[in-house]
Design a protein that fits this description.
This protein has 9 helices and 12 strands. It folds into 2 domains: 115 residues, ATPase, nucleotide binding domain (Nucleotidyltransferase, domain 5); 161 residues, ATPase, nucleotide binding domain (Nucleotidyltransferase, domain 5, 2-Layer Sandwich), CATH 3.30.420. The strands form 3 sheets. Strands 3-2-1-4-7 form a 5-stranded mixed sheet. A 5-stranded mixed sheet has the order 10-9-8-11-12, sandwiched between helices. By secondary structure, the chain is an alpha/beta fold.
């Protein structure tokens, strides 16, 4: 008798929410759940994840594989969390502790890596040999998948383009805004949602959320249109830098700003002058799974 592939559970640990999904072996969704994420409390975070897994397993009535997407990453050297903007996770043996809590092995990856895995497996980049997945939300992250395999590297930081500096910076862009990581001018400070809003405020003196700026630009408001064009130009330079190093077949945008339709029209032309090739066109597409990509990708961490 051939054993059936297990049910896959994916958990997306965000700064404000924890999402979970149970996928059948063919990728069909069986059940999902969502709850607020405890902030600043490591023990409560572990407990909340365990509750999400228990709730989803009641659907399958069998032990499932568990994959978790999280901010930052687990250092392959120390086993401790590094680079998480949910700072109460940093320096903690998260993988070891959650495995003890759940009583099984768990696979863990950066949330942007989970997004990339999802879109490469059965999303907008399905069939592409190489894919770079980009998160443009509260922060700015990235993940690289080649031949269906996540490339995270010996330090667990593969794809972390958000904490590289803005390339080809103009005089008025240097040294750039200060980032939470301690550096200045990181891509995250320019092209994340808060980065877009901060740029608009610096230029216009008007404090608006990124979503409001995008809506005003879609309505033709000149100041918002100018902000969005500056954002697209900076994003294009950052992505062209990635293309010159990794040369991905497709780039998939995720996060809240991936809903700005104008980006897909503008980015290829804005990137082209910076791409070191006689064929500088790069395919940039929206995600198939939208906000679900991260949690689905966590489930797909298990083959």
């Amino acid at each position: 008798m051939v054993a059936l592939p297990p049910i896959r559970i994916g958990v997306d640990l965000g700064g404000t929410k924890i999402s979970g999904v149970a996928l059948a072996p063919d990728g069909a969704e069986m059940r999902r759940t969502r709850r607020p994420a405890p902030r600043g409390d490591y023990a409560l975070t572990l407990a909340a994840i365990a509750e999400v897994v228990a709730e989803l397993e009641r659907t399958s009535r069998e032990a499932a594989t568990v994959g978790i997407g999280m901010p930052g990453s687990v250092s392959p050297k120390t086993g401790l969390v590094q680079n998480a903007n949910s700072t109460w996770l940093n320096g903690r043996p998260f993988k070891k502790d959650i495995e003890a809590k759940l009583g099984r092995s768990v696979r863990i990856a950066n949330d942007a890596n989970c997004f990339a895995i999802s879109e490469a497996t059965d999303g907008a980049g399905r069939g592409a040999r190489s894919l770079f997945g980009v998160i443009l939300g509260t922060g700015c992250g990235g993940g690289l998948v080649i031949d269906g395999r996540l490339v995270d590297g010996p330090r667990g930081i593969g794809g972390e383009w958000g904490h590289n500096p803005l390339p080809w910076a103009s005089a008025d862009e240097h040294p750039g805004p200060r980032c939470w990581c301690g550096r200045r001018g990181c891509m995250e400070t320019w092209v994340s949602g808060p980065g877009l809003a901060a740029d608009h405020a610096r230029v216009t003196g008007e404090q608006l959320a990124a979503e409001t700026i995008a809506a005003r630009a879609a309505a033709g408001r000149p100041d918002a249109c100018a902000t969005l064009l500056r954002h697209a130009d900076r994003l294009a330079r950052g992505l062209a830098h990635v293309v010159n190093i990794l040369d991905p077949e497709v780039i998939v945008l995720g996060g809240g700003l991936s809903r700005v339709a104008e980006l897909y029209d503008r980015l290829p032309d804005l990137m082209a002058p910076h791409v070191f090739s006689d064929t500088p066109e790069v395919r940039v597409v929206p995600p198939r799974w939208g906000d679900d990509s991260g949690v689905r990708g966590a489930a797909w961490l298990w083959p």
